[in-house]
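User: Okay, second chain of the day. Same drill as before: sequence in, structure tokens out.
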Amino acid sequence: MTADQLQSLITAGLTCELCQLEGDGRHWYATIVSSAFEGKRLIQRHQQVYATLGSRMQTDEVHALSMKTYTPAEWAAQSA
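Assistant: Same drill. Structure tokens below.
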């Protein structure tokens, strides 16, 4: 899987202000900013992203995904 393919899967299932990916085709590092994360705990945010990938996590199509998830306000504060 390419970064573009993975990004398309995530953004198709989750409205993102930002979705950046780096990786080697199996191990991925993502920075995701979404208003859908408002009021959610970290585990809930990760579950939302995993839900966009469906069975691809179980079938090893995406072997590992490390995420940093932010709301738009958190991203703005972190970037300032």
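DSSP finds three helices and three strands in the chain.

User: Thanks, on to the next one.
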